[in-house]
Task: structure prediction
Amino acid sequence: MITAIPVFIALQALDVATTLLGFHLGGAEASPFIRALIHTSSPVVGLMACKLVAFAIAGIAVAIRRPRVIKLANFGFSALVAWNVVIIAVLTIGGRA
Result:
């Protein structure tokens, strides 16, 4: 669990960074929940609200000694960041064609 927490934090930062870059390049949010958060406030505020929820769940997992929850979340957020990178690449390459 010691390494899972720093990885979780890094993945949250990477998710925010890649999502905001994707927005900057013209991408859109696919998740209806996060899209609703973003449209009721701003992209940064919506993403931060989502991250607060993620950190709250991670904190509960730590408190009740369920390290597997954080490890599973790390797999999910790794896939999400990878997807964001693919979208960024498509938007970047598509913009130059």
